[in-house]
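Supplementary Methods, section 5.1.

A reviewer requested that the exact input to the structure prediction be made available. We therefore reproduce it here, unchanged from the version used in the analyses.
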Amino acid sequence: MAKKIKNKELRRKVDTRDFVKKTGRDKFWKLLQKQRDLITDKKTGGIRKEFLARVKCVICKKDDSEKIFHGKGFDFVRCKKCGLIYTNPRMKEEKVEKLYRGEAPVDVWVDVLTSPIQMEYDKKKFDTRLAILEKYVKKGKILDIGCSIGHFLKIAEKRGWDPYGLELNKRAANYARQKFRLKNIKEVILEKAGFPANYFSAAGMWGVLEHILNPGSVLKELHRVLKPGGVVIFSVPNAGSLAARILQEKTSCFDGTVHLWLYTEETLRKLLKKMGYKVLEISSEQPELDTILNYLDYQHPYLGRSRLVLDKKLKRDLENIILESNMGYKLIVIAQKPKK
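The structure derived from this sequence is encoded token-by-token as follows.
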């Protein structure tokens, strides 16, 4: 059984509403909604068919699923065999790539990541993650897939790692080069980066595996470029989180414009095993209790201020239970390419 990463020390200092406002996530969500409006069928409320394509489950390679709900213009389905949740049909490949290479919402996400409160939270988070990573592998070349502004790589560099990054969005990639002075940043997908086999000691993927068109292809290529015994650490939204189960289509993770695959601990284990990885540690973070309380009080989950005030100790105890049950909003995983 894989160990659990300790995430209790990573709680945010402010409630959900203040964090959303101070980081500018509300502005990012509004831009995504404007983009959806442009391609939405006014009669049906769904995304217009010409922008969509049917897909197969990335684990089972079959299109045999059941619809679980409709949200933000998309149908969310669950594979009948393995349980993976995904959008089907989903945005066509050319539309997805255009989004990440420079449409307005992704550019604005750079502002979110560079907000002072987000930078402070991410610095502590990435330091904690790297400390865990270093328990399993010696420092060497480290790759960040979808490195965005390069914050994780800059912290890794300060800890003695040799950083490499891949980022499609030009604004984010330029920030990584100019502000963080990172040299090895490429604006290509991993499959086209041309890295040699057995090249990296470690890799990171922060909020990436849910966005990419073919997660299996990326995990396969990453397996090739990792050294034997090399380790990858990554995070994804947790479709098995308490917040996702209660809020369903109202939670931010169920947004088919940007989130194509929604993983649980169970489906992630299946995918990683299929691609040849061994899971070393798995846990969750961000209990999102404020979000749940807002929703239960008939308010906006992310922008409300619930009147259902809990005793501080009770709230902390409930958050601990959520995290210990791996029902936090995000899953954190460390997996290894077998040594031989």
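The CA atoms of residues 165 and 185 lie 5 Å apart. These observations are discussed further in the main text.
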